[in-house]
Specification:
This protein is mostly helical and about 300 residues long. The protein has 12 helices and no strands.
C-alpha cells in the first residue's frame, strides 16, 4: 500500500471545509478524484465513502462534546437514511460497472453537485432573510441554547430516505443537500447546531453506504488511505474553527467550486464553463448586494457587523 502525498494534501484542505461548514466532503472529494487524479467514477465514489466513514465521526465527536447535536433529530434521519443508503449501492450494483455505468455515475454526480450548489445559495439567502427580520424586529432572536422543538417525523424520515439514496449512489449529499433541507424544516436551529447535527447523522448514513460499497462497489485501499491521512487532521481543525469563524465566505467559495465542478462533470464545453463562471463572479455579487439592500441591510456585510455585532 502506497500513499499519494498530493492526494493527501488535497484531502487535508477538503477536510477543513467539511469540519468548518459541515459540507463539501463527497461533493468535493469525489470530483477531485475523478477530474484531477483520473480515478474512475465508481471507484471514486466507493473509496471516498469508505474514507468518509472514518472521517465523519472525527468531526462529529467535536460537536457532540460541545452540545451542538440534536440527537432526536439524528435518530429520525437515520431511520430513513441507513437502509436507503445501502439500497442506493444495490441500485448501482444492479447496473454493473461498465463504461456506460461509469458515465451514468459521473452524470449523476454532476447533477447532485448542481443541486448542492443551488442549496448552498438558498441556505445563504435564508440566512440573509433571518438577519433582516432580526434587524427590523419582525422576528424573535435566535435562541442562545439548544432549542426545544417538535420533531417533524414524516418529513425528517423522508429526507433521510432521499439523502441516503443520493449518498449511496454518488457519495454526495450527506453534508450538502441534507443540511439545506434541515434548515428549512427546523429554522430555529443555530448554524453550529445545523453543522453538528448534520455531521452526526452522516456517521451511520455514510457507514451504511460505505459497507455497501465495500461489498458491492469498487473500493481501492490505496486511494482511501491517502484520503484518510489528509482528511482526519483537516476535519479536526475545521470542526474546532467552526464555533469561532463565520462560514459565509467558505460557503460562497464552496458554491462556486461546486458549480465549476458540476459543469465539468456534465461535459459542458470549456468556453461555456468560462462564460458561466465569469458571469457568476461578476453578476453574483451585484445580485447579492441588491438583495441585501432590498431587505434593508447594508450593501456590505462588514458594515452590517460594524453597525450591529448582534447580527452575526
Amino acid at each position: 500500500m502506497s500513499i499519494d502525498p498530493t492526494l493527501a494534501l488535497a484531502a487535508l484542505g477538503i477536510g477543513v471545509v467539511v469540519g468548518l461548514t459541515g459540507m463539501g466532503g463527497g461533493a468535493l472529494m469525489t470530483p477531485v478524484l475523478v477530474l484531477f487524479f483520473g480515478v474512475p467514477p465508481l471507484a471514486a465514489v466507493s473509496s471516498d465513502l469508505v474514507a468518509a466513514a472514518v472521517m465523519k465521526p472525527v468531526g462529529a465527536s467535536v460537536h457532540l462534546r460541545r452540545g451542538t447535536v440534536n440527537l432526536a433529530l439524528v435518530k429520525w434521519l437515520c431511520v430513513g437514511s441507513i437502509p436507503a443508503a445501502f439500497g442506493g449501492v444495490l441500485i448501482m450494483r444492479a447496473f454493473g460497472n461498465g463504461p456506460k455505468v461509469q458515465h451514468a455515475v459521473q452524470v449523476a454526480l454532476g447533477i447532485a453537485l448542481l443541486l448542492a450548489a443551488a442549496g448552498l445559495i438558498l441556505r445563504t439567502y435564508l440566512r440573509l432573510l433571518e438577519r433582516a427580520r432580526r434587524a427590523d424586529g419582525s422576528a424573535e432572536p435566535l435562541p442562545q441554547d439548544r432549542p426545544s422543538m417538535r420533531i417533524r417525523i414524516a418529513p425528517t424520515v423522508a429526507l433521510g430516505v432521499v439523502g441516503g439514496l443520493v449518498v449511496g449512489m454518488t457519495s454526495v449529499g450527506s453534508g450538502s443537500i441534507i443540511i439545506i433541507v434541515l434548515m428549512a424544516l427546523y429554522p430555529g436551529l443555530k448554524a453550529s447546531q445545523l453543522v453538528g447535527t448534520d455531521l452526526m447523522q452522516a456517521v451511520p448514513l455514510v457507514a451504511s453506504a460505505a459497507f455497501g460499497h465495500l461489498v458491492f462497489g469498487d473500493f481501492q485501499l490505496t486511494i482511501t488511505s491517502s484520503l484518510l491521512l489528509g482528511s482526519i487532521p483537516g476535519v479536526l481543525l475545521g470542526a474546532h474553527l467552526s464555533a469561532r469563524a463565520p462560514g459565509g465566505l467558505a460557503r460562497r467559495a464552496l458554491a462556486f467550486v461546486l458549480l465549476a465542478t458540476s459543469l465539468k462533470l456534465l461535459a459542458v464545453p470549456n468556453a461555456a464553463i468560462g462564460v458561466i463562471l465569469v458571469s457568476a463572479l461578476f453578476i453574483g455579487p451585484l445580485m447579492w448586494i441588491a438583495a441585501r439592500r432590498h431587505h434593508g441591510l447594508p450593501a456590505l456585510a462588514r458594515r452590517e457587523l460594524n453597525g450591529d455585532h448582534g447580527l452575526r
